[in-house]
Sequence to fold (718 residues):
Amino acid sequence: MSTPNSLDGLLEKANAYLAPELVSQIVAAFEFGALAHAGQTRKAGGAYIWHPVAVAEILAEIQLDHESLIAAILHDVIEDTPYTKQDIIDRFGESVAEIIDGVTKLGKIAFDTPQEAQAESFRKMMLAMSRDIRVILIKLADRLHNMRTLGVMRPEKQRRIAHETLDIYAPIAARLGINAIRIELEDLGFKALYPKRYATLEFAVKKARGNRKEIIEQISDAIQTRIHQEGFKSQVVGREKHLYSLYKKMKKKKLSFEEVLDIFAFRVIVENADDCYRMLGLVHSLYKPLPGKFKDYIAIPKPNGYQSLHTLLFGPYGVHIEVQIRSEMMHEVSEHGIAAHWQYKQTESNTQPSAVDVRAQEWVRNLLEIQQSAGNSLDFLENVKIDLFPDVIYIFTPQGEIVTLPKNSTAVDFAYAVHTNLGHACVGCRIDRQLMPLRTLLESGQTVEIIKSKETQPNPTWLNFVTTAKARSQIRHFLKNQHSRSATDLGQRLLTKAMRVHNMAYSGLSDELIARLVNELKLKDWNQLLEEIGLGQRMAGLVAKQIHDALLGKDDHIPNISDANGQHQPLAISGTEGLVVNYANCCHPIPGDDIIGFISSGKGLVIHRRECKNVKHYQNQPEKWLDVDWDPNSEELFAVEIQIETKNQRGALALIASEIANTKTDIERVRSEDKDETYSLMNFVVSVRNRDHLDELLRHLRRIPIIDKADRVENLDH
Fold:
């Protein structure tokens, strides 16, 4: 479809549903836009103004309100002409100006990569959509017209735009239920990305259409005759899958073209929901249904508000017939989604928001939550892409409410979908009253109950199995904040210890001195300094020296402060310091071991055993070593590796794992290899409280008849 070169098409569509005074405002917007874009042309040819007019005409086809049509005509004015947002407000009102501002791309900000620019532009668009969802409707229409005129672009640019369309814009149209726009975006994107595949499939469909015509007419006549006999008011139409849908199905299910076209599809449109179920009984009496192939999207709509009954039937000549049954209103929603009940329409300005509107707003709220917890624009775009491809399942809460989730979701995804705090606090779940692991994949129709605890918090390993964007972004956000808090706490402890060397007390720091240091070091605030110390990005000793110099001057004598035993007080390690105190995997230190701390940039404080081989490697960096000791009151569990030499026999691994469990010791990892024909070596990483607990475990294992040796794995400098 080419770009129009007159207003006639837009005005004809607008006059069909808008009052004359509103249509006159659209004409005024055209005159303003034509003046603003005077002298500008498009690569496709013709004056630039005809592009925004074409965008407005697409929106008039789905009967959007007059403000949307005005904003569509003027959507490039702020970005591409000397006119400002205030000029738009003065002439057409603040609402129109806000929509245009949301549609406007980020053209004036420099980014390191095109991906960052695209991601930030997309984030801005999503945030503008949260204020007024008409922003995304105009953006979709703008993208659709650009796709219609894509042929004038260079081939590589065509492919880039087509990729973006299929990855982002078509899924957004699907998420908002606007199938008329989604289908055209997908087919145009498919054509630009894979022109040869598109042409081959298009030719095959045209050829097959002639061969199938007689069967389609026969089935349609049979359904129409039965409907007439029963006195229904309805219409029956044959339905063809669009090319991109056929291509995806062939690719996903590895089907030939003939196998995909084996299904004859029909749509029956009736007056109301009650008639849908009566019509279902009628078609089931005409042709036998295939067991397990009936879907009721009226009782349980899709996430975008789509409603229909779907059934698959045995037809004549052994063919399969797919029938969709829906009311006229459901059909309108299926084609135009949120635009079908648009709450800004003049005719519906006083009505309650429809179920489609409510679902769209829920999605927008979910996007806002993802945005607030995303680290940057690229994270946000990645998470939204996850959210845009839901093959959905329907899960019940214990109260009988339905939660819609993407396929392959887990109990953790379910918990976050119900409420963020429930996700943070979940420790277990019951699926259909059975205790199950949190990583269990859910299936439609299951009832899930989340077991929660105030003492728990998100586990980093959850990121390995969660599916939904909300769960992923909220877990990352929590862990990032926890990491920051842990680093700040450790930084304060390290600085407090370093200041004692200079005969100063951390508690004695005045607000004035803190503000002065923050300014001198060009920091955002004091917590940033503590966090950087905790992460090993600044040395606590150097910061303490800066504080000393700021207070007393560089030449002041620094006494060597010691405790009552004449030794520097070591930093106590309890195991509860969070993610910024790490225990070296080379030597697995546990309470009871003689330990030392190494400050590693980005990792924080890494604890080694003093006799660990790797300690020797870092001897040329004495300023990064720190005296540490175990907190005697620690009740935490620590990982340690043990190696067992056992006789080869069936079930040896299961026996040993069972014996370890009997000592109330958890196994984190296990590795096994043959030593020779008679013996195997098994390495277990287990969780213990301290050396006494480890010694008790080893003594227990050495008493097992098939075990010859059981020792701690050492990485020591002997």
